[in-house]
Amino acid sequence: MTNARGPVAVRADARRNIAAILEAATTCLARDPDASINDIAAAAGVGRMTLYGHFGSRGALVSAVAGRAIASSEEELASVDLTGDPVDVLTRLLTASWTLTHRFGALVVAAESSLPPDTLHDAHQAPIKRVRAILRRGRREGCFRTDLPLEWEVTTIQSILHGASTAVHRGEISASLAPALVVKTVLGALAP
Amino acid sequence: MTNARGPVAVRADARRNIAAILEAATTCLARDPDASINDIAAAAGVGRMTLYGHFGSRGALVSAVAGRAIASSEEELASVDLTGDPVDVLTRLLTASWTLTHRFGALVVAAESSLPPDTLHDAHQAPIKRVRAILRRGRREGCFRTDLPLEWEVTTIQSILHGASTAVHRGEISASLAPALVVKTVLGALAP
DNA sequence: TACAACTCGTACTATCGAATACGAGTTGAC
DNA sequence: GTCAACTCGTATTCGATAGTACGAGTTGTA
User: Fold this and answer.
1) DSSP state of B146
2) CB of A113 within 7 Å of some strand D atom
3) Does the C-beta of A7 come within 7 A of strand D?
4) Cβ A188–B185 below 8 Å, yes or no?
5) Per-residue CA distances from B6 to A192, B2, B14, B60 (Å)
6) Tens digit of pLDDT for each residue in A133-187?
7) What number of CA atoms fall less than 13 Å from residue B28's CA on the CB side?
8) Which residues contact residue B100 at a Cβ distance below 8 angstroms, ignoring those fewer than 6 apart?
């Protein structure tokens, strides 16, 4: 990307294609972690060779997509207000998590075989830490039940989020209704 | 399988191998719906060609395994007492469902591409019908909340069962503890 | 307008898993 | 003990997908 006059800017159409590829790869991989390069290129509206021009391999593409997802998740979750009534905090956290779960879905699975395990593990634990923390505080303040292992409760929350996402994909419930259902259900399951 | 003297019995070693293959295929496919014929044959302790000798194709094997699973599930669930306090009934139903979910896990996914959609759909709806029925009765009798769509509650139950199964597979919780956790969590989520 | 950056089709290699063909060796049942 | 039933290795075909090579055509940008 350099010539005699110095570094050359990335052409606008290339930038557009890269964005389209990342976007298409995100939705394709979130739906099916085994989606083929062919499918992704087609979904992005570019030729397969164009995709390979920007991402040398499947792994490179998956890493890029996962990196974006991780960054965007972190940003989203960092903006959640963690102070105040634990029930309200958990509600906010669940609503934000719902969006992320539904948007990125099975992407984690795709990333498992392309990203360094540590990176992925850390990225996956970061949002969970917040949930764990508010659960603990809520228990201390008497808002949540204490007769179940905390780790199990975290697993349950993830299961419900994931179930809601696939239910929406199957058209069983509307995407706009989902977050409220998740919140009501989880709060019911955690009530003392 | 016939000769001049009439039908010939299946040889004992063949019967043993068929049983081993079905068993191995069940556990392999429940863990990974994309398990290869090679893996399954190895897990069964037979050569790949022996497997093909008994099951003409991957589809035939998956169908056989799924058929067994469906029959065994039906039998198990049919033995559940559906009378009495809805909370007790749901507890029994969840305990039985847990066993099945954990044993057959991702088998449904493997069957999706091999079994006629109708068969699979019916087999999957049969256990759900029982849950739906007891949820409805429990609502009428005031045991369960009524502010969530019934279909969503069914989805939630499936999600929790599935989540518990994978958690056990990952070693996060013990298999003996799981059913109690599932029951407590689901009852909490459905409480009025 | 000139040129590098970019697009993208075609064709090729490599790998993997399913499935078939062949055939030699083993073994259970009568 | 005989023989069909059965086991199972090797080789091969087939289809899907990742990735490479080449090159002709297009287009953004200076």
Assistant:
1) -
2) no
3) no
4) no
5) 70, 5, 19, 27
6) 999 999 999 999 999 999 999 999 999 999 999 999 999 999 999 999 999 999 9
7) 21
8) B72, B73, B76, B77, B127
DSSP secondary structure of A55-85: -SSHHHHHHHHHHHHHHHHHHHHHTS---S-
- What is the number of residues in chain B? 192
Pick the CATH number of B6-190 from 1.10.645.10, 3.90.230.10, 3.30.530.20, 1.10.357.10: 1.10.357.10
- Reported as a single tens digit per residue, the pLDDT across B7-55 is 456 888 999 999 999 999 999 999 999 999 999 999 999 999 999 999 9
Strand D bases, protein C-beta under 7 A? 4-10, 16-23, 27-30
Assigned CATH topology for domain A69-190:
Tetracycline Repressor; domain 2 (1.10.357)
Outline where chain B has alpha helix (H).
12-31, 37-44, 48-54, 58-78, 86-104, 107-112, 117-140, 150-169, 178-190
